[in-house]
Write a structure and sequence with these properties.
With 234 residues, the protein is an all-alpha fold. It contains 13 helices and no strands. The protein is elongated.
């Protein structure tokens, strides 16, 4: 069970039957007679073959997510229900609130609590917009960014921020005030073209870094770099 096979959504191949059998054994251990009753009157070979084909369309990360989520189910899942465990549908409004809380945590030098990596990476790509505008104003853009990230199916690890101001340095308040000033300037200077390109802030921040501008808050630089390069790269 630990060696989840590679899968590809573009050229899916069935997972090995022994993997499906191992999965069924785990579910039998979780649910006992409930699981056995679920498959009464069916052709076990056909059932396993169908599961193998459909699970082959999932990524290793999705397959592992389904295994972990099994312990939350009171009843053994059907194949569609199990796939839903592997690929949970994110609620955009709840994800937005999580993104705001997560970004605030990263400003304090913490990693933040992220229930799904897609929420983090969507937030990283819309950092300034999320800080400037309320949910109603950015709802369509946030939903599009979140959906785009979810469809990737594979994400880098979420690392602890390395460029954020540490709460122990004594300058957290000043960094927050400086960030507010930066946001105010960017909001006032926004052009029509920038509104059509929500990632324009990323290039603008990195250009200021390249010019040696030291006035930008570390958290802004960190989110800009992670949005362009991915977490952990500089």
């Amino acid at each position: 069970m630990s060696n989840v096979p590679n899968s590809s959504t573009s050229h899916p191949q069935p997972v090995p039957l022994h993997w499906v059998e191992s999965l069924f054994e785990r579910m039998h251990g979780y649910y006992g007679a409930k699981f056995a009753q679920q498959w009464q009157g069916t052709d076990n070979a056909t059932v396993k073959a169908v599961w193998a084909m459909e699970l082959g369309k999932l990524t290793p990360e999705e397959l592992n997510r389904g295994l972990v989520a099994l312990v939350t189910c009171k009843w053994p899942p059907t194949l569609p229900e199990y796939i839903a465990l592997c690929k949970p549908i994110l609620n955009p409004a709840a994800a937005y609130m999580e993104a705001i809380a997560g970004m605030n945590a990263r400003e304090r030098g913490e990693t933040g609590i992220w229930s799904h990596p897609a929420i983090y990476f969507a937030a990283a790509g819309m950092f300034f917009e999320l800080k400037q505008e309320g949910y109603a104003a950015i709802k369509p853009r946030w939903e599009a960014a979140l959906e785009k990230e979810v469809h990737k199916g594979k994400w880098s690890n979420i690392l602890k921020p390395t460029l954020a101001y540490s709460p122990t340095t004594g300058n957290t308040k000043s960094s927050q005030e400086e960030l507010a000033r930066v946001l105010k300037k960017i909001r006032a200077a926004r052009t029509f073209q920038e509104k059509q390109d929500p990632r324009a802030w990323i290039r603008r921040v990195l250009q200021r870094v390249q010019r040696g501008d030291s006035s930008l808050p570390g958290i802004a630089i960190g989110f800009a770099r992670e949005a362009i390069l991915g977490p952990g790269r500089k």
